[in-house]
Structure prediction request, 362 residues.
Amino acid sequence: MPKVNKWWPKGFRVWTDKKPPYRQRCQHRNSKVMIDLDKYPARTASFYAECERVTKAFEPDRTKPGTLGALIEKYRASSAFTDLAPRTRADYQNKFDYLYPIRDTDLTRFTSPFIVRLRDKAAEQKGRRFANYVKAVISLVFSWGKDRGFVKDNPALGISNIRRKRGEPRSNRPWQDSERDAVLDAAPKHMRPAIALMMFTGLGPQDALTLHRDAIEGDFIDTARSKTGVELYLPIISPLREALAAAPKHDALTICANSKGQPWTVSGFRASWRKERQKLERLGKIRPGLTLYGLRHTVATIFREMGYDERAIADVLGQETIEMARLYSRRADLKRKVAGMGTAFEAEVNSRRTKIVKPGTE
Prediction:
């Protein structure tokens, strides 16, 4: 009889084969549907999202027609949701779970003021970024429903995000050169390849940690961004090549592996990174606020300072539009603009507007 672990999702059973290769398996009890643990690694965000999807798919439909819950269920059953990357589905599902208590609310009650109140309440409970995400997901679902005739309009359209408070640090700030050097020097050998991949290619944590060995083709990495599906062809520059060559040997299919030679999970790497980051903060070698995702901003900033345009930066980062590239590189734009204005201002003050006026003369 398979042993049930209380930490696994309710309604699922998990066991390990008694014969080699001792594979772990997971099955939904009622439907007998198996969860592909190769595609959705156990106890990751994508795993829980897939378990949630299977559970919902085989539960009786208890949502009332014409309600938020019914609209969300229609959206979740569509390819617009199922074709998303696992991490994106998990993020959306997290917001759907937050909205679950109001699932029976009639769609006619959703007006712009109503959604603003929802957004503000979410900010009080979960913070500004979560609240803005809730508003964005509501807008996305209503927009999808409007295109298919389920609702007349999108009441979330045009509602602004809650602005960052004055003095509140920006999330995912670019790393300084000294911080990049300090982290690479101090990182354990088994963590260094993953950090170098993020640092010198702009790959996000999920894409860097799951990158397969066969993605390397000579001096380039041939891959695609998991979130958008945009294909990437990234050069392997010398610091990255050196970090990969010095990596501990392992038999994992991925380029990066943990201290046991197994593929990293994103949560496992973040936990290890948190310890390293806090240690370096205590030593004063880095400033507070470093995030792994900030390395994407770092790459964008460096390219912008080198003079590359937003379309080129978006292509390197795997962005479908230039808006995110513009956001990522905004500090570089500001720095270049202000530097140029400062030079012009200095020339104006020194050469054209400064003159010595002797006492008694005009």
Observations:
- The first helix runs from residue 45 to 57.
- The beta strands are 12-16, 24-28, 34-35, 216-217, 220-224, 231-235.
